[in-house]
Amino acid sequence: MTAPRVVIVGAGFGGLSAARALRRADAEVLVIDRYNYHFFQPLLYQVASGLLDPAEIAHPVRSILRGQRNTDVRMDEVRGIDLHRQVVRCSTDIPYDYLIVAAGAVTNHFGNQDIAAHTMGLKGLSDALALRAHVLERFERATETTDERERRRLLTFVIAGAGPTGIEYAGALSELFVHLLPKDFPRLDFAPVRVVLIEGRNRVLETFHPRLGSMAAGVLRRRGVELVLGRTVTEADAAGITLDDGTRVDAATVIWTAGVCASPVGKQLTELPARFGRVPVRSTLQLPGHDEVQVIGDLAELEENGEPLPMLAPVAIQQGEHAAANVIAMSGGGAPTPFRYHDKGTMATVGRNYAVVQLGRIRVAGFVGWLMWLVVHLTYIISFRSKAVVLINWAWNYIFYDRPVRLITEVGPGRAAEQQTEEQR
Amino acid sequence: MTAPRVVIVGAGFGGLSAARALRRADAEVLVIDRYNYHFFQPLLYQVASGLLDPAEIAHPVRSILRGQRNTDVRMDEVRGIDLHRQVVRCSTDIPYDYLIVAAGAVTNHFGNQDIAAHTMGLKGLSDALALRAHVLERFERATETTDERERRRLLTFVIAGAGPTGIEYAGALSELFVHLLPKDFPRLDFAPVRVVLIEGRNRVLETFHPRLGSMAAGVLRRRGVELVLGRTVTEADAAGITLDDGTRVDAATVIWTAGVCASPVGKQLTELPARFGRVPVRSTLQLPGHDEVQVIGDLAELEENGEPLPMLAPVAIQQGEHAAANVIAMSGGGAPTPFRYHDKGTMATVGRNYAVVQLGRIRVAGFVGWLMWLVVHLTYIISFRSKAVVLINWAWNYIFYDRPVRLITEVGPGRAAEQQTEEQR
Known about the structure:
about 425 residues, alpha/beta, FAD/NAD(P)-binding domain, six-stranded mixed sheet, 13 helices, 27 strands
């Protein structure tokens, strides 16, 4: 009997942990991703705020899995999945005996085309680079315009959604605007600079304990972030946004972190998607009706204690390991086992010296939380080199309130966005 | 009498050294560049070969000049220069009392549209990023195709022009292909991988002493680079190139380092450009007929001992300082002095442990030359932080034959180029 072909779709936290857990398995493993790198999403906002360079949070999948003789990597776009013929359709058809789908999630604009067209996401590495260039360019433009109203618009930065990404980016931006950019733009009046964080619920960080949420909110407010709770963005255009109570905010930059939904790949796996397009799976992570297919991470909908598991890295990582174990069991004639999530807790930082941490009943906020955040994130980052560089940058930034990486290299996207705005105005 | 307005066009080596030399001058200095960063061009090939990240060789102009109270920076495109009204035309008109034009040079395709369309340059930061992504993507594609001929084409990398940029990039690529990528692509046969360096003259590095050139050529050959001397590229299409002797080379990647010419800004300054569109200037760097205008760096044509000064960083830097001194003299009622170039020598590396160095009569080649190259380049790089990071990367690369930065982040350009090739094939 030949080794089974195991195909893993997606090289995010889930797919990568599955691939690693299969390194000693008697199987032919193939990891497919449309990019050639795995990146550490929790630090993406630092790339977007010019603190880190892409290479410091991203690493080529091929070198991560280099040591694994039984594993191959393919940079390709998944065009479809034929569950009956058991092939993944890419530039060529790729047959599988076992399939692990870890395609993750994408930004959710809730079907609003205007919002999709006039806001920027913060989900991928290219989003972060485009955003970094865009934010810095607003300041360049602000120094040039003579129109007061336009300058205020250029210097207004709206973030929709106060989840971890939203509040972490809001904190990073306010730091950038308060401590650093005034030195770069000594002749620019920073009074009109605004960071507006809009959240539809009445609290920030809903996945955290309310006390932690309100503490984080307090810190953000003290750091100059305008919090607008209980309001949602209903319209977006080239000039700004409108809230559900009719409030108008003129802004040249609107960052959309108000929602994610499952990758479109999910449509290939089920006709009856769950909330946010997630794919309902059995407790064993298997796709109902297709024992050879497992779905993990943000893409999978699995309830535990009546609650769907959150879209978090630890869930994806643990499910990846579990899916690998199931494959090994099944290929050995055994049975897959149900998945149990071990809550490792969650944390979020609002910038210098302050983070909120929640480990089951233990809740920490402030400087200690920030140190915990620092340690955890540093240990997670894959390559040693990245760690060294990240440390240097963080130390540098911490001591000198400086951000090393403030290059508008993505002139393409940056300018494009700019021109687009011009035209539509 | 109010302080004169000194406008500097270009934040390259020339413009920046002029701005710095004016830091104590009683003048209103404005530096205009279409990018917000100054970058260290001599190391651009390392970004293009995935050894360094952009932020390690580039730094925002605003932070470089942050300390200078009399200096402002503007990120803008120069649309024209009105020598009579004494204004630089950008998004708004910028008047000047003294103008220093350091707009530099651009890639020269010698008017061949096909070559412009089907080759990639290595002059700007975006060129380097696009090239890095493109080269890595060729290998990804090569693993996917089943067509032997197409695979050979994908794995053939042509570099036109054996000046410093050409040979340094050829050396960097051959290292990348020999030491590193085989680990990332264990299932790919590397036998068909070719690096072809084409040079119209009968020698490489014509600005160096012939002995150094032939030594460098020897090392490149030993490292697997195919040198084609005395031949020029006459045609380029989506599938490859044709040489002047009719030789056909099928290649999916053609890098054009065969020539540069003065920035189009030069046309605003003279009706009678010199060779390569450079602007002839007086020995004082002044524009004939416009004493208040000085032209420096690659853009300026100035002969010394019957030879036009080379397009090199040291020339631009020294001319920048001299132009600043002239401005200070003139604004004080004095007279500008003629410029003399102090040859600091030139150097070029062909990769690990080997560089050729020429300091007047002193000529060094090999490991010692490489150490000198290392020291000089490290000292040149502007910010401390960059130095630290660059050191880490170089050490890492030197010890582990590894290249930290191998991300295909520019999926945009990369894919675009790809699709273009597809269509045109």
